[in-house]
Amino acid sequence: MQYTHPSDRQVRALSERLPLGQDENVNPLPAARLERMIGKPSRDWTVDDLIEVVREMNIRVISLMHIGGDGWLKTLDFVPRDFSHLRDVLRAGERADGSSLFGMMGIDTTASDVVLRPKLHTAFIDPFAPRPTLALLCGHLGRDGAPLPESPDTIIRFAYNRAKHEIGVDLHALGEVEYFLGKRPDESDAYGADDRGYHATAPFVFGEPLRREAITLLAEFGIPVKYAHSEVGYIEATEDDPYIWEQHEVELALMPLPRAAEAVVLTQWVLRNLAHRYGMRCTFEPIVRRGHAGSGMHFHCSPVVDGVHSGGEDEKGNMLEPAKWLIAGLGQVGGALMAFGNRVDGSFIRLTQGKEAPNTVTWGKYNRKTLIRLPVVARDEEGKAVSPPTVEFRLPDGSAHPHLLLAGISQGMIYGKDVENLDALLEKTKFNPDGAGVASVPHTMPEVAKALEENRGILEAGAVFPANVITRLIDTLK
C-alpha cells in the first residue's frame, strides 16, 4: 500500500474524533489512526514524526504507559513545556520508583530507581482522555542504563530474543480476551438465556455496541483484531447481585510475542474504560458466579521458522517439529505457568466445575477439554490455509499476567526442543477418553508453588526470569 500524508482537513477531522466515514476524505485504511496521519508504518516512526503529530493535533498531554509487576497498565503524564522538553521525553523518558512498581517482583530496594523509555512504534491517541493526549508504551531501564531484569517488558523481550537466537523461532501469539459485562435490568431488555449467547446478535445481547466500539478503537491504536463476538455466559440478576452479566470475547490477531502481550493489556484497558463510559461493569475474573461459564484467557502460539508459520501439520498430516517442541514444553511447564496465568482463587473454581476447562496434562486435535489443542484451520476451496495453524494453550484465565505467561511459554518451547524421546512423550500425553496415567493440573496455590519450584530452572534458563523473581513468587504462592 502506498502511504500518503493527510491533508489539513483530514487532520482536523481526525483530531475532532469524527467517526470513520463521516468525512468523505478520510480513508479508513490503514486501520491505525497515526499511520494514516504520519503516512508510514509504525515501525518507521521517528521522534520528529511524533512531534509533528503533537503540533498538528494541538496535543496537550504526553502519557507514558507501562506494565507494572502486577501486570496492570500504569501511567506517567506530562504537559510538555516546549518542543525541546517534548523531544527529551520522547527520546529518553523519565525516572520512576521501581520499588513501588516491582516490589512484588523481588527488586532490590537499594537499586530501585528505574527509567521509563518510550517505544515510539506503540504511540496512539488516547480516546478516553479529556484533553488531547498522545500515549506511548514504555520499557524499563535500570540505573545502569540496561534493561531492568525484574520488568515484565524486559522478561518477555529476553524470552522472545532467546528463542530467535537459540532455536531459530520467531514466536508469535494471540490472546482470546473473554470478559463479562454487567448492567441493571430494565423493561426494554429483550435477551437472556444461560449458555445460549454464543454469537448472538442485538437486541438479544446488550454488549454488542460496546464490543464493536472496542475493536474499532484497538484498530486505531494499531492492534490487529481477528474477530469479536458474544459468548455463551449469561447470568440473571438476583437479590444478592442486581446485575445481569453477559459474556463476550475479543480474539486478537497473531503478533510477535512482546506485542501480543501488550495487545492483551490494552484490550482490557479499552474494555474497562468503555464499560465505565456506558455505565456498565466489566470483569475478567475467571468465575463470576459458581455453576456458570467462566472466562478463560486462551493463548494461541505460532512458531515462525524462516518466515513460515510452523504451529501445526504439513500437507501430509505430519506434525511439524516446532509444534512438537511447543506441545512438549507446555506439557512440562503448564502447571508452573499457572503462577502467571491463574492467579486468583476463582481460577481453581473454573477448573473444577467443568465447562470446557482443562484438568489434565493432555493435548489433542480440536478437543476443548485438553490442556493443549490444535484448532481446525480455515481453508479455501483449493485446500489452502487462509490463516496460520496454531497451538492453543487453554489453561490460563482472565487473571493472567500476559507478559510473564508468554515469556514462560517461550521458555517451555525452548526446553521442549531438547526433550528425549519427544515422539514417545507426545504419544503418552495425547488425549484418550479414559485418562489413564495422565497427570492433573494443580488445584491449589501451594500446588502451583511446588510446580514452579520444580520447573524454575526451565524459566530461569538464559537469564530470562531472574532467580529473585521466581523465589519471591514461590514464597507468595505458599
Characteristics:
478 residues; alpha+beta; ten-stranded mixed β-sheet; six-stranded mixed β-sheet; 36% helix
Describe this structure in words.
- This protein is α+β, with helices and mostly antiparallel strands.
- Strands 7, 8, 9, 10, 11, 12, 13, 14, 15 and 16 form a 10-stranded mixed β-sheet that branches. Strands 1, 2, 3, 4, 5 and 6 form a 6-stranded mixed β-sheet that branches.
- It starts with 7 loop residues before the first helix and ends with a helix.
- Residues 1-25 have low confidence and may be disordered.
- The protein has helices at 8-15, 33-38, 47-57, 83-92, 98-102, 152-167, 208-221, 257-278, 321-341, 346-352, 402-417, 422-429, 445-460, 467-477, and strands spanning 61-67, 73-78, 94-97, 113-118, 124-125, 133-141, 170-183, 225-235, 244-252, 255-256, 281-283, 299-305, 308-309, 363-365, 372-374, 391-393.
- It is globular and about 70 Å long.
- The protein is built from 14 helices and 16 strands.
- 36% of the residues lie in helices and 19% in strands.
- Helix 8 packs antiparallel against helix 11 and helix 9 (321-341) crosses helix 13.
Low-confidence stretches: 1-25
**Taking all residues together, what is the mean pLDDT?**
89
What's the total count of β strands?
16
Indicate the percent of residues in helices.
Answer: 25-40%
Order of helices and strands: HHHEEHEHEEEHEHEEEHEEEHHEEEHHHH
Instruction: Name the shape in a single word.
Output: globular
